[in-house]
């Protein structure tokens, strides 16, 4: 006797669908198996979105049914890289001007897209927005142990780092970063929204 997918109980089918992608591989190709698989996989894939400026075109074309599946948006805004001279003083003026322009452009464009989404109705999941602003250089200098956006640091590498210029000795931070360095990573960002 051959057992088909529809012969399985709902609980067993859910267990099978839940196990897909557990090894870190993409589950998107499995959405083509059936309508049931498509609904389950899309709910999982669209629940959490990590969006960068380069993704705005695709993000803006997200269908209304897919928009309703989104519960968490991680907006990742990458600033220009800086070198140790900038690190010790402050971001060079040209980087600061570019960074401010890019942040204003990114946030304005993002909220223009988001304002076209349907208002969530009673019973719909809420929508959480997480904004991550970082420079790839943050991981190379004083903040080697930080994770920003979808660029996690390699924890195994931190344990062996000795970088006296940035306060690291054998993987431990012994000297705290100065106020300007902390302000660069955790400081206030002025935004001017015109939607």
Give an overview in words.
The chain is α/β, with parallel strands linked by helices. 37% of the residues lie in helices and 11% in strands. The chain has 8 helices and 5 strands, in the order ααβααβααβαββα. Mean pLDDT is 75; it is low at 150-156.
* Radius of gyration based on Cα positions: 22 Å
Query: What structural category arises from helix and sheet content?
Result: alpha/beta
Contiguous runs where pLDDT drops below 50 for at least 5 residues:
150-156
Number of strands: 5
Strand content: 5-15%
Q: What's the helix-strand series?
A: HHEHHEHHEHEEH
How far the N terminus sits from the C terminus, by CA atoms, comes to 62 Å
How would the blueprint of this fold be written?
Blueprint lengths: L9 H10 L15 H13 E4 L4 H5 L3 H6 L2 E7 L5 H5 L4 H22 L13 E7 L20 H4 L9 E2 L2 E2 L5 H8 L9
Parallel strand pairs: 1-2, 2-3
Antiparallel strand pairs: 4-5
Describe the structure concisely.
The protein has 195 residues and is α/β, with parallel strands linked by helices. It has helices at 10-19, 35-47, 56-60, 64-69, 84-88, 93-114, 155-158, 179-186; strands at residues 48-51, 72-78, 128-134, 168-169, 172-173. The protein has one domain (47-186).
Descriptive keywords:
3-stranded parallel β-sheet; single chain; 195 residues; 5 strands; two-stranded antiparallel ribbon; alpha/beta
